Amino acid sequence: MTTSFRISLRRGTVVTGKWKRRKYRVERLLGEGANGKVYLVHSDQGWVALKVGADAVDLQSEINVLQTLAKQGRRQAPAFLYDVDDLQGSDGRDYPFYIMKYVRGVNLSAYLLQNGKEWFPLVSLNLLNKLAELHSKGWVFCDLKMENVMVADYGHVELVDYGGVTAVGKSIRQFTEIYDRGYWNAGSRAADLKYDLFSFAVLCIQMHDPKRLHQLTLTLLPQNRSTEDLEQLIATNASLKPIAGWLADALAGRFADAAEGAEAWRMLMHRTNRKQAAPTPFWLKGLVAGSAIMLAVSVYWLLRMGM
Amino acid sequence: MKQILLITDGCSNVGLSPIVAAAHAKAEGIAVNVVGVLDHGDAGESGSMEIEEIARAGGGISRMVHTRQLAQTVQMMTRKTVVQTIQLAVQKELKHVLGSGAIEDLPPETRSEVVRVMDELGESSSLQVALLIDASASMKPKLIAVEEAIRDLMLSLQARQGKSEIAVFHFPGGRHGEECKMDLGWTDNLTGAQSIFPKLQMSGTTPTGPALMQVIDFYRQGDYGRRSREETDGMMSDYVV
């Protein structure tokens, strides 16, 4: 779905805004979204990210969402948008760009690979809380996938690429097939808060069992794809099985929003943590039984001696 | 807003040039998009040239895709064309007011307002998409993917706030020498498992141009009030290009 797009900014290039004349020095390419490319640039305020788009209308509607978000957020929300302007490409054409906070970190799959799967429950909870923030303001993220989740130290999560963010009730403009509820014949493609939870559930599967998930997309006929196939996969994966109930609720749209999902996730984490501590080791059971027998024997012996 | 989406895998070989036909569509206010489905590069040089030119003449966009990407491409192109159609209308208005038509020439604040209105229009305006499917012999193995793409498009359109309808045609039409045949009249709902193309008789000819003309005529008839499916079919077989 990436638009064909020629502009590329070379390292060291100084970009000057056409309207406000602010200057940015390009460092390197950070990534590519559906609406444009994101670069790390240096400004007089330090390191920031610059997103340049090929299409003025597409990028502007993304900027509009960010502007509305910035207005809605009182203090909690990060400053999304520092500057909006146009730059002149090497081909002489004007390209729209905007400047946002530079999010340090690596994407979700890289983070789990580097730091281990034991971070999964916490990182997921942080991600659900991020989604809940958006949901509380009436927005749906929509294009939730590995590449759009950045994780920094100690599992700190940021969502990147707000190009798909859609107001509740509108039609979804940007999505990725395997994370899409419609693709699995499990609901509409209108933005509602449950849509993100569905994608989140698929994301969990993607984290633990990407091979078999990919296999499903190859073997199933489009009209036969269903959440049952996903649930079967979950039931037969050791890491996913403990959260099968939660995932089933998310896939079926039983959580009203991400906040409710996050609450249930937190409860689940506590329960599984306790469960892991609860089972008494076999040797301890043996020891207790052994000492009980010893006690009985010595009592018996004492009684006999005393008599 | 009116669109025709042509899904084909090669060159037309009978009748009126599809490029002329697409220009007719544009004159009627219908944008023509073309998807070239090529699995083994079977469209060839001339095929892909033709696909590109039909879209250009019809004021739409063209893409060459593999069968696997068909559904997502169709959905994306339809959305993109809606945005383009609105953009053209808005640019005309802007020219009246500001003297310059390009969205890019607007300062950021004004641009933000204009795009907000455009997004709103894109979501709420009514939309009709007539899908015209090439059912020549080489397309046969791809028809399952085509049907999936049509269902997927319906799902995306149903999410819009404005009224959205699709109609489906295939060409060549079959025994009676028709250039194209309607499989499905205007609908906003594709529930049910029955196939859109029940028993297609594949044939060798590819009358892309004449088929396009028939779909344009179908749009014209629709403008004079909806007729029942049988009636429309009857009228269409009388139509001579």
TrEMBL record, chain A:
It catalyses: L-seryl-[protein] + ATP = O-phospho-L-seryl-[protein] + ADP + H(+); L-threonyl-[protein] + ATP = O-phospho-L-threonyl-[protein] + ADP + H(+). One of its GO terms (molecular function) is protein serine/threonine kinase activity. Keywords: ATP-binding, Kinase, Membrane, Nucleotide-binding, Serine/threonine-protein kinase, Transferase, Transmembrane, Transmembrane helix. ATP binds at residue 51. PROSITE patterns: PROTEIN_KINASE_ATP (PS00107), PROTEIN_KINASE_DOM (PS50011). SMART domains: S_TKc. InterPro entries: Kinase-like_dom_sf, Prot_kinase_dom, Protein_kinase_ATP_BS. Its EC number is 2.7.11.1. Residues 24-307 form the Protein kinase domain. The keyword Cytoplasm does not apply. The chain crosses the membrane at residues 282-303. It holds the Pfam family Pkinase. This is non-specific serine/threonine protein kinase. It comes from Paenibacillus algorifonticola.
UniProtKB/TrEMBL annotation, chain B:
SUPFAM superfamilies: vWA-like. InterPro entries: VWF_A (IPR002035), vWFA_dom_sf (IPR036465). Residues 1-86, 128-241 form the VWFA domain. This is VWFA domain-containing protein.
